[in-house]
Amino acid sequence: xxxxxxxxxxxxxxxxxxxxxxxxxxxxxxxxxxxxxxxxxxxxxxxxxxxxxxxxxxxxxxxxxxxxxxxxxxxxxxxxxxxxxxxxxxxxxxxxxxxxxxxxxxxxxxxxxxxxxxxxxxxxxx
Length: 126
Description:
Number of helices: 0
Largest sheet: 7 strands, mixed
Strand content: over 45%
Radius of gyration: 13 Å
Shape: globular
């Protein structure tokens, strides 16, 4: 069973930065597209960013384009989300997810991801 463990969340002022990490327990990580999603209180889970298994095929939600950067290190089985110019509306629990279909392209549909982390809280104060 795949384990995904997020870290790096916290409290930051508007305009600040955070870097989230997600470590995977499986060697198949290097062949799997990865994604980041978030869920704010009383809102549905929404797509943030995704990256293909080679590090190409990167997708971003319009709300984070130009501010967030997704990357991965397959040697460390880790995917990252660098978040800059944070806004109060970025406040949410952030989840990383792994697509079960190895070697497939990246996707923004949460239904395409079979493994999820427990989430890490990001709070942006105004």
